[in-house]
Amino acid sequence: MDYRHLGNSGLKVSEITYGNWLTHGSQVENDVAAQCVRAALDAGITTFDTADAYANGAAEQVLGDSLKSERRESLEIFTKVYWPVGPKGVNDVGLSRKHIMEGINNSLKRLQMDYVDLYQAHRYDVETPLEETIAAFADVVRAGKALYIGVSEWSAEQLREGQKLAREAGFSIVSNQPQYSALWRVIEEKVVPTSRELGISQIVWSPMAQGVLSGKYEPGKDAPAGSRATDSKGGQDTIARFMDEQTLTAVQKLRPIAEGAGLKMSTLAIAWVLQNDNVAAALVGASRPEQVAENVKAAGVKLDAATMSAIDDALSGVVESDASKTVSPEKRPA
């Protein structure tokens, strides 16, 4: 495993980070989830990402149960606040002081921990003054309940204003968690250059484009049984944007490129995002322990210029690069 600094901070994280969105507490049984966490630890992963909204708290609980016997100081634990949780009342959502303070306390109870290493704004909240949000995060840090603060899917402009207020409040935003893959490059034009300037790293989710870049979805064929594309509980919706025939055909052109590099297509996809020096970590999930072992093989892989160019050529015409697609909800979700 290789490790990278998170933003301009002194904190190092494993460049392959284990995330439990769409798996723990919902898609896989708790004992299998625990096996996946064990596999991550055995592979050298020390950084784990979750959120209060994942399975409405159950994902945090499963992660906490799986890690409670581990030395806390040897782990980096990330969670998030914003999306509706609990009974989903009017204040069970967003980035108000009330929800942030209640959110961190509830997350720590579920995780069975005294603090998290990184507490993240899961989206930008248009209904709360940014000054209120930043002041609440500052108080969370001063209380020792979170060591660092990050955000997720914030635009370049939101990052700039948030960092300005954060520094005035005595801390820094160290990370942003956007979607990023060889197919979804919307952060490259504005978010990445702004983040470099501000000392913010990317912790990227869906580096395999919801599994499409693994090559298992072939044009003209039904999705494999049990795959994310057949999951009506949520996976089906998130993967839909990548399931058109043109994209699936282009992705199959990556197969000989991966073979030429001595990698599986999934490993190539994860390694691709790690070539960006503003990326601190690639988030990977798993529904089986062996998937973890395979994903970790991307750690430390260096892709040469010819391979990177061949990937660009293969995906020409199907890559999404529109910077305006880095957006948060226009109003709080119910």
UniProtKB/TrEMBL annotation:
Q: Where is the NADP-dependent oxidoreductase domain?
A: 15-314
Query: Mind listing the GO molecular function terms for this protein?
Result: oxidoreductase activity
The cross-references to InterPro entries, in alphabetical order and at most eight, read: AKR, K_chnl_volt-dep_bsu_KCNAB-rel, NAD(P)_OxRdtase_dom_sf, NADP_OxRdtase_dom
Q: Tell me which UniProt keywords the record has, alphabetically.
A: NADP, Oxidoreductase
Q: Which residues form a coiled coil?
A: none
Q: Which GO terms describe its cellular component?
A: cytosol
Keyword Aminoacyl-tRNA synthetase belongs to the record = no
The cross-references to SUPFAM superfamilies, in alphabetical order and at most eight, read:
NAD(P)-linked oxidoreductase
Per the record, the similarity remark reads: Belongs to the shaker potassium channel beta subunit family.
Protein name, per record: Aldo/keto reductase
